[in-house]
Specification:
Layout lengths: L1 E7 L3 E7 L6 E8 L7 H14 L1 E8 L9 H17 L3 E5 L3 H11 L5 H27 L1
Parallel strand pairs: 1-4, 4-5
Antiparallel strand pairs: 1-2, 2-3
Helix pairs in contact: 1-2, 3-4
């Protein structure tokens, strides 16, 4: 069972994919768009990835505030999740993504990745990987 992880941002979507057994997450790519409201190509690429990997579930990071409340970014992520599910036909599960980008930045620091451009190219993919791996590790607890 392949599961896709998404980290939705204002101009990027980090993408991660599980292995065929659904045990581990690997960073896949970062989808970049020129403006936040330009989603047609982003949705088309997510749909293409879902078909290519035969994805059965999509885990979308939900950016909650540290106190657990939802703000504007969380509402935009929810709206994006609805669009993704409608476009792909694949169920979308929202997953608390607090601190995943911070963790991804720490990984890049440890790897000594320098330069804003170099980091930006991969930070969202790594964050998507964290979101997906947390869901994979915790899915039995939900059942």
């Amino acid at each position: 069972m392949r599961v896709l992880g998404l980290d939705y941002g204002a101009k990027t979507v980090g993408v991660a994919i599980s292995d065929p057994l659904g045990l581990t997450a690997q960073a896949l790519e970062t989808i970049v768009r020129s403006r936040e409201d330009k989603l047609r190509q982003t949705l088309a690429r997510v749909d293409e990835i879902c078909r290519e990997y035969q994805v059965e579930k999509i885990i979308l990071g939900l950016p909650l505030h540290m106190d657990g409340t939802a703000g504007e970014r969380a509402e935009k992520a929810r709206a994006f999740g609805t669009m993704v599910q409608r476009r792909t036909g694949v169920p979308v599960i929202l997953w608390d993504e607090r601190l995943t980008t911070v963790a991804a930045d720490e990984i890049l620091d440890e790897m000594k990745v320098q330069g804003r451009h170099n980091r930006k190219a991969v930070v969202d993919q790594i964050a998507a990987g964290f979101i997906l791996q947390e869901w994979l590790d915790n899915r039995e607890k939900e059942s």
